[in-house]
Amino acid sequence: MAVQTVELKTLQVYEEGGVYKEKYIDSEKHPAMLTNYSLKVGKDSGLIKGSLLANIMHLQKLQDVEDDPDQAAEAMERLDTTECLKIIYLACSGLKKDFKYSFDEFAERYHEDTQTTIQTYAELIADLADKDPNQFAKSLQDSTKKKPKKDKRNHQNSKSKR
C-alpha cells in the first residue's frame, strides 16, 4: 500500500489596493492511506455507506472511457467530489489516531483542485482491489471452488503399506 501526502492549509482573503486577493497560510502535510480501521471509522460515523467496491468499479469505467471524450465527461459528472473528499479525510484520520480535524474542519482546510482531488482519491482506493475487476472476480471464484477429494485408492494403498 502506498502512503499519499495530503496538504491542508488555511485560506486567507485580504484586500489590497481595492482588489481582493487570496493566500494560504499554516500549511501542514499529513500522511494518508486507507486502512481497515479508517473504513470502519467511516462506516461508524456515517461518512461512507456500503462498500467501496462500487467506487472502484466506477473508477475502472473512467479509465476505460479515456478514448471517448463524451463518455468520459458523462462518467465524470457522476463522480461526486464531496464523496472523494470523505475518503481522503478517512485516509488521513484513520492512519493517524491523533488527527485533530473533524470532517468539516478538514474540508475547510483542503484546497486542492478537482483533478488533484479525484487523482488522490483514485490512488487511495486503488490499493483496495486489483485494478482489473476480472482478476478480482477470478480470485473470488477460485477461492470458493470446492477442493477435489483425495483418490480413495491412493489413500487405501498408503494404509496397506503400513
Q: Which terms summarize this structure?
A:
single chain, 162 residues, 2 strands
In short:
This protein is of the alpha+beta class.
Describe this structure in words.
The protein is of the alpha+beta class and 162 residues long. It is 54% helix and 17% strand. The protein has eight helices and two strands; from the N terminus they run ββαααααααα. The chain has helices at 36-45, 53-64, 69-77, 81-95, 103-109, 114-126, 133-144, 152-160, and strands spanning 4-16, 19-32. Strands 1-2 form a two-stranded antiparallel ribbon. A hairpin with a 2-residue loop joins strand 1 (4-16) and strand 2 (19-32). Helix 1 (36-45) packs across helix 4, helix 2 (53-64) packs antiparallel against helix 3 and helix 4 (81-95) crosses helix 6. The radius of gyration is 24 Å and the shape is globular. 13% of the residues are buried. The model is unreliable at 130-140 and 146-152 (pLDDT under 50).
